[in-house]
Amino acid sequence: MKDLFGNALLDYQNNNYTEDIITATSISEEDTLPLPYLFRSYEDMPPIEQKALSLAKGRILDVGAGAGSHSLYLQNQGFKVKAIDTSKGAVRVCQLRGVEQVEHLALLEETETFDTILLLMNGTGIFQTFQNIPSYLKHLKSLLNPGGQILIDSSDITYMFEDEDGGFWQDLHNGYHGEVDYYLSYKDEDEVPLKWLYLDFQSLHIAAASSGLHCEMVFEGEHFDYLAKLWI
Ligand SMILES: C[S@@+](CC[C@H](N)C(=O)[O-])C[C@H]1O[C@@H](n2cnc3c(N)ncnc32)[C@H](O)[C@@H]1O
Question: What keywords appear on the UniProt entry (predicted)?
Answer without folding.
Answer: Methyltransferase, Transferase
